[in-house]
Write a structure and sequence with these properties.
single chain, about 425 residues, alpha+beta, Penicillin V Acylase, Chain A, 10 helices, cysteine-type exopeptidase activity, Peptidase_C69, Secernin 3, dipeptidase activity
Length: about 425
């Protein structure tokens, strides 16, 4: 079976309810992969320091921003996340005319984390990713095995005012600014003729390869894809279905609407099978800079039977222990060459508890129904609490330093009651 990719969504006023930006993403990965949710504080570094990414070491910057990430536990980068400036980033696998089989370099997921650590706006995140792409390239296996599963990347990036779609092919790229309405991406190129930033050699490279005649209007998706944009729009694929779901709620898209979209199985957005939705994220970002963003993460597979738990950036945040996987350091099979000779146990505490309750939901219909109802009730209560912060701000930040971890403990308690 050919692996599928994920779905990422963003909605901006006037498509949203209130002056808010809603960001959402499902991370679709191998069904046995553990996804952790982790927090890293802002950090200062000395000149000349390096940072070890998944496969390669690169130059560190003098200051990194605080980030919360949802990431496959075996690698350094992230599928999705946010930073203290309310920048949100998610990436998708894309395949086109250019081969993705290259040397180990930066993974698209490394670029997600690097952008969040180094960019205080969505547009700056585009610049960070493309500068790193030019300097270090993208490449390496994106699965924890020897299959050599490789791809290029597209990114959906948002902040308090706008969103950007960035699509890459090797070191070449195009970016489109989204200032209102909604946008979704799946695993195909979607930028057509509206290009607001681009690699300076992107058009000439396409012309030299015979993909573009240099005269007709340049359409990035048509030129760099295996297929035309007409195929991308075909009814039945996840991109088209996601677009329909956004349109259905156009003008009143909320966090709840986005969660429902991520839970939708009929569309294939909530993926099942060998590749499945292993983690989900929804962020609510008020346009008012005095109000906090609220970032919801599941840290568990299948959003339909998971709880979206809130995270807010405040000072003195504690590590998210219940959703942090074991670390194997230099002994990790990912770090040793040849890589991927074995797979260690990467299950974090919440994953273990959720795995047990998921089995109960599958095998005991009535009991499973009660557990699911209790999980939804907990989620609803948390969202009601967060609405006050989204509307009036954070008056007692110290009360929120353990917000996500306490929500995880309440979720685990729900499992224990049944």
């Amino acid at each position: 079976m050919l692996p599928s990719s994920c779905d990422t969504f963003v909605a901006l006023p006037p498509s949203t309810k209130g002056q808010r930006i809603i960001f959402g993403k499902n991370s679709d990965r191998p069904c046995d992969e553990v996804q952790e949710v982790v927090y890293f504080p802002a950090t200062d570094y000395s000149a000349g320091e390096k940072v070890e990414c998944t496969y390669i070491e690169i130059e560190q910057v003098l200051h990194t921003y605080a980030v919360v990430l949802s990431k496959p536990a075996w690698l350094w980068g992230a599928e999705m996340g946010a930073n203290e400036h309310q920048v949100c980033v998610g990436n998708e696998a894309v395949w086109g005319r250019e081969s993705a089989d290259g040397d180990e370099a930066l993974l698209g997921m490394d670029l997600v984390r690097l952008a969040l650590e180094r960019a205080n706006t969505a547009e700056r995140a585009v610049d960070v990713i493309t500068e790193l792409l030019e300097k270090y390239g993208q490449g390496g296996s994106c699965m924890e095995d020897e299959s050599g599963f490789t791809y290029h990347n597209s990114f959906l990036i948002s902040d308090r005012t706008e969103a950007w779609l960035l699509e890459t092919s090797g070191k070449y790229w195009a970016a489109e600014r989204v200032e209102e309405g909604y946008r979704n991406i799946s695993n195909q190129y979607g930028i057509t003729t509206k290009i607001d930033k681009e690699h300076p050699g992107m058009r000439e490279y396409a012309r030299s390869k015979g993909w573009w005649d240099g005269e007709t209007q340049f359409n990035f998706a048509t030129v760099y894809s295996f297929m035309t944009t007409a195929r991308i729009e075909e009814a039945g694929n996840r991109y088209c279905e996601g677009k329909k779901l956004l349109e259905k709620s156009n003008g009143h898209i909320t966090a709840e609407v986005m969660m429902d979209i991520l839970r939708d199985k009929d569309s294939g957005i909530n993926m099942e099978g060998m590749f499945m939705t292993t983690g989900s994220m929804v962020s609510v970002i008020p346009k008012d800079p005095d109000l906090p963003g609220v970032h919801y993460f599941t840290a568990t597979p299948d959003p339909e039977r998971s709880v979206f738990k809130p995270f807010i950036f405040v000072e003195h945040l504690k590590p998210l222990k219940e959703t942090t996987s074991p670390s194997y350091g230099a002994d990790d099979p990912v770090k040793k060459k040849p890589r991927f000779q074995s797979k260690p146990d990467r299950k974090h505490e919440l994953f273990v508890k959720h795995e047990l309750v998921a089995a109960i939901i599958d095998s005991h219909k009535e009991r499973g129904k009660k557990i699911t109802e209790s999980m939804r009730q907990l989620e609803k209560e948390k969202m009601t609490e967060m609405e006050e912060h989204l509307s009036v701000g954070v008056e007692e930040p110290d009360f929120l330093v353990n917000l996500f971890s306490e929500s995880v403990k309440e979720e685990i308690a729900v499992y224990g009651k049944r």
